[in-house]
Amino acid sequence: MRNKIEFGACSDIGCVREGNEDSFGAAPDVRLFVLSDGMGGLAFGEVASRIAVETIIREYRGAKAGTGLNGDSIEGVSEASNRLVSAIHAANKAIYQNAEQNGANQQMGATVVAVHLAEERMSLAHVGDSRAYRLRGGQLEQLTRDHSFIAEQVRQGRMTQLEAGRSGLQNVLLRALGTSPKVDVEITEELILDGDIVLLCSDGLTRELTDARIAAILGSCDEAQEAADRLVEAAKQAGGGDNITAIVLRRDANSRNSFARMFRIGR
Ligand code: CA
Fold this sequence. Notes:
The protein is an alpha+beta fold. The chain has a single domain (5-254), classed as 4-Layer Sandwich (Phosphatase 2c, domain 1). The chain contains 7 helices and 12 strands. A 6-stranded mixed sheet has the order 8-7-10-11-1-12. Strands 2, 3, 4, 5, 6 and 9 form a 6-stranded antiparallel sheet that branches. Strand 5 (112-117) and strand 6 form a beta hairpin. The longest helix has 23 residues, at 79-101. Residues 37, 202-204, 242-243 line the site of calcium ion (CA).
């Protein structure tokens, strides 16, 4: 019997912004979940993140159906991981071409964090500063490293976490979808165990809530949807300075709510 994955998702404009540039999508039939945070003037950010989510899900399904992969396959990772990276390359191209057609070059881009859940492994791909976390046995672990200027400064020891938190350069990304014809996609594979909770989120959540707060909320909810709603609400209460999106996935052999489709989209 397949292990059940329960999921919930919530996206909210926050308290300050005039539009919601975050997008998310769930394709439980192929066990794929995608979150994207768009950027760009006018409505370009909203368009970019929507193209990212739609293209990745469509291309992943297409590759599964055998219509081929984009680019070279990566050795040492699963077929699902290769499909996912290939789908993200296609999304990069789609956003880049859309930006060219609209004269929006330099102004249009998006992050992505996407997960494919196999039986015992998950493929995790990301570009930019949208993150994935895993809660296991009460411990929260960040599974992605931000592709941002600030995070890189911290990794190289040129800046402390405290300085990073106060920096005015937090929006500077080192990688994004749609800003150049090619993109470097980071892919990892992780074990997934019964009871694991995986969170995908945009920076509007992680800039407002500490890891301890995120862990407490994830650990105290009975259902994935409740956790997603409560995380987004807590980030709003904390200031809601940006759009906030959370996808919560829970692997549970005994869950009653397999692939529960319950979304709340706040505007
Ligand atoms: Ca954001």
